[in-house]
Amino acid sequence: METTEHLHIFVNRRRFGHAEGVRARMNGGQIAALVHVPPGNAVVRRETPPHVGEVGIDEEIVIHDGEHFLVTRRVVEGG
Length: 79
Fold this sequence. Notes:
Order of helices and strands: EEEHEEEE
Low-confidence stretches: none
Strand order of the largest sheet: 2-1-7-4-5
Number of strands: 7
Strand content: 35-45%
Number of helices: 1
Radius of gyration: 12 Å
Largest sheet: 5 strands, mixed
Structural class: mainly beta
């Protein structure tokens, strides 16, 4: 496994590394925070095979160097 200092990921096509808070294990809320999306309003998807799929806000995952994530805001309909 990569050391944390050399670990980097891409979130919404932007590169993030150790200095920005990337760690060997992160949850969806921490990934969303990298692009300033509040965890309560975030949908986080892992886009790098073979681990493609949604990552829960409180779900802790092992981060692999060079992985890509897509963070979007949950649509909230006003009433």
